[in-house]
Design a protein that fits this description.
Elements: H1 3-15, H2 18-28, H3 33-56, H4 63-91, H5 93-116, H6 122-139, H7 152-176, H8 182-197, H9 207-213, H10 215-237, H11 242-248, H12 251-264, H13 270-289
Helix pairs in contact: 1-10, 1-12, 2-10, 3-4, 3-8, 3-10, 4-5, 4-7, 4-8, 5-6, 5-7, 5-11, 6-11, 6-13, 8-10
Length: 292
């Protein structure tokens, strides 16, 4: 596997541990998901700022263009947290994951063609279709979708909004990496996202007590699947087409499912197994295409 695909794969696998960590946090604290999202950004931002300063030295940014891009990226990252977790509250985990995770690669592919001038070759289109269908089968469990009630449409809209926010993040980041080094870009993005999410603290009670109760898990979330993972993702994105990166990040739900089966005894039906095979086949097709 070439270096770009490898870096993005490692990032996606790291993101896949977030669900397990959230499950453990729910046992230890009563922290709401938006508080968790804020803490991820708040822990990651200073780490990335220090790492970028050490690795890159003084930054040279064209603030009129690159500064606006960093503001947009931070806003997209914050919007993803708000939309995704708000959708979970309205439609449940299964529907939200299905709509948000499966729509993002499709939106990335469309935006990459229109904005970045990438070509959607037949082999890439096949890999995209395999990845999206495989992920759909993987994250959908019989009986988990729930009944369609009055909250379904706004919840579905928020889930699709999360997919769009992530797609915009990926495409704008890809466009910016031709001018800005990966670490400064990630550092500024997460700093903006942390500031944008600060108002969620107003809706939380006993914030200090919750942070103290789950400090190790909060620290892990901020360091590994956030600061480290997004550094790897940004480094990989610099040398990988945005559409390809979008497909490879579907390893996130595969990792989360594998951990659920291995650690919590969750069951994976025939459809889920077939979905995992399709998803792995999509990644293998990408690796072969890129000369691995």
């Amino acid at each position: 596997m070439n270096p770009g695909l490898l870096l993005i794969s490692l990032a996606a696998i790291s993101w896949g541990t977030t669900g397990v960590t959230m499950t453990l946090l729910a046992r230890e604290t009563s922290a709401g998901p938006l508080l968790v999202g804020f803490v991820r950004m708040a822990v990651a931002a200073p780490l990335l700022l220090v790492a970028a300063r050490v690795a890159e030295g003084p930054w040279r940014l064209g603030w009129r263009r690159d500064g606006l891009a960093c503001l947009a990226l931070g806003a997209f990252m914050a919007a993803y947290q708000v939309c995704y977790f708000s959708a979970v509250a309205l439609t449940g985990i299964a529907v939200t994951a299905l709509l948000a995770i499966c729509s993002a690669p499709l939106m990335i592919a469309l935006l990459a063609v229109l904005w970045l001038g990438e070509r959607l070759t037949p082999q890439l289109a096949l890999s995209l279709a395999m990845g999206v269908v495989g992920t759909g089968l993987l994250v959908t469990r019989p009986g988990e979708a729930g009944a369609i009630g009055s909250a379904f449409l706004p919840g579905a809209g928020l889930a699709l909004g999360a997919g769009l926010a992530y797609a915009l993040y990926a495409v704008v980041a890809k466009a910016s990496l031709g001018r800005v080094a990966p670490l400064p870009l990630a550092a500024l993005t997460f700093s903006v996202a942390a500031v944008a999410l600060t108002p969620v603290l107003l809706g939380e009670s006993r914030v200090i007590a919750q942070l103290a109760a789950g400090w190790a898990l909060f620290l892990y979330l901020g360091v590994v699947p956030t600061a480290l993972a997004y550094t790897l993702y940004t480094l990989g994105l610099r040398r990988t087409p945005a559409t390809v990166a979008g497909i490879v990040t579907l390893l996130e739900p595969l990792t989360a499912t594998a951990l659920g089966v291995g650690l919590f005894g969750e069951r994976l039906g025939v459809g889920g197994v077939f979905g995992a095979v399709l998803l792995l086949g999509a990644i293998a097709l990408l690796a072969l295409k890129r000369g691995a």
